[in-house]
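Just curious: can you write a single protein's sequence together with how it folds?
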Amino acid sequence: MAKIKTIKTKLGATCYDIEVKCNSSGMFTFDVPAELGSLIEKLDMAQSYKYSSLKELEDKVYKIIGEYKEAEIKTRLVVHIRFAARGEITRGEDGYILPQFSDIGGKYYLSLFGGEKDSALKFGYSILIEESINGNISYYNAIKTGSTYNSPIYRRIGDYIASNYRYHTNKDDLILPYTDDIIDSLKSIERQLKNAAVFLSELLDNDKVEMILSSGNFKLLENKEI
């Protein structure tokens, strides 16, 4: 497939070359740079089609780029929080699974393969760049680069830039505006969960685990002679 033309376009301070090609049957296609295709989803999708004329192709490309340039685009940093649990730790005092952890519509139900009955908990969070184009929202992983990183001005907030690929979220996911206080609180929760995990690993690896569990004296873990 022979290259016959280059369509040049500029977004912000960045210039992009779109290569136009024609096959032996007289059908036209175009290739967009990965960064531009990630930025304009319609353009990325349009490059998978064949066009019967150069004019048809150019009209399509310019129309999509024009719509993007005229769109109302807003970006902000957000935090996507992930949490789910199952097993005995999700039961109330009456012995029944609490509704938020139910496998029937429970918002925080943790699905595991194989029907495991052990207690399990999942917790994590990601810093994302939220992009709204005429009200249509997409999310991208926010990559911290530092102020000297050379990147397009769009999809950049402070020291963060967006990855090229969309980040998948579900409609019920908890997404909060980014603040340092929220991140500090989430890090504190992570530390508490880490302490619990380390405690259990040290307990179960202890040579005197049977004695410790029988006595309930967990301070014995701190005794180097045990």
User: Anything to note?
Assistant: The mean pLDDT is 88. The radius of gyration is 26 Å. Residues 61 and 189 are 48 Å apart (CA to CA).
